[in-house]
Amino acid sequence: MISLSTKYMGIPIESPLVIGASNLSLSPNLIMDAVPYGIGAVIYPTLFEEVAQIKDSTEVQQRKFEKKQHEKRNMFPFVRHGDLYAHLANVRDLVRRLDIPVIGSLNCVHMDSWEYYAKALEEQGVKGLELNFSMPNLSWSYSSRHKEQEQYRIVERVKNVVSIPVSVKLSPFYTNLLHHVKCLDRSGVDGMVFFGNPMLPDIDTQNEQLLCDLEVTTEAISHRVFPFIGKIYPNTVAGLIGAGGVRNGYDVLKMILSGADAVQMVSTIYRHKLEYIAQMIGEIKEWMFQKDYDKLEDFKGALSFENRQNRPLYSRKGYVDIMVHSTTVSKKYPISTSHTEG
Ligand SMILES: Cc1cc2nc3c(=O)[nH]c(=O)nc-3n(C[C@H](O)[C@H](O)[C@H](O)COP(=O)(O)O)c2cc1C
Fold it and tell me: Which of 17, 266, 272 should be mutated for ligand 1, with most atoms under 8 A from CB?
């Protein structure tokens, strides 16, 4: 009997397919419909500090908000006029209606707020928290080290005030992701979500405008994630989770072969609807049947750095080999020229 049960930041779940934070989970009915197709858990959309505190976030209000935030002692009395209560009530409702774990997601500006809202989400019955660090952090005024240390402090402080597991959702933009992962792991985080598709603007060349609309992932981009997971596994206590560009059962398998416990997905569900989840589960099970695997643990991390055979591919040697053999590309895509080779 093939089992797809796994752990998500230590929480037992029945399937490695997890619905990532998105508008999908704003509809409890939709998620309830998705569960029988094979969803293991769901992340509720991120509670952003700004949204929690200010409903109409115009620039003027935003400036006032920033000023207020610096008066830390007076901060929380202002919470009442935001969208916070609606968000928390929706989270509680989803938790109440689902049998699968609901995870809360959080993104704050100030240290006190991370603790405060983490506690508020825990009180709604979420089984775990995702600290959403996936926003690219670019600044002229501080070093990457400064930002990374801030993230360890956030994890430690949140872990101090909640008793549920805590994960972090990371962007691919770190100077040295492995070192950061090692320090995050030491700070006690229970799960790490590697997100390969951070929301960056596009450019409309016709109108010479930046486009900031959120779009679903259409490209095959899971390879932006699983090589990192493969390099990291099994060197963390925290469970590893892949997110971004999971389009079918085989993309899920690639993540697990690299060492992931589970994957998050959103776009594929928007594009192919809920029934498609069952097809993905079918693809995973069929592959496992063909390979004679009974459970995910049988092959989790088989293609990671842990396996000695794979090490060259995860190292400088692998990079150099790829570059040296890049003539295969010219052979595959020949371009004819009018000149004769001399
Ligand atoms: C409509 C939509 C809303 C999203 N909202 C959030 C959010 O609130 N917080 C967050 O961390 N990620 C959010 N995401 C990103 C997803 O959680 C997920 O990481 C991302 O879509 C990559 O996976 P995919 O390629 O399967 O879509 C959102 C994505 C979409 C498409």
Answer: 266
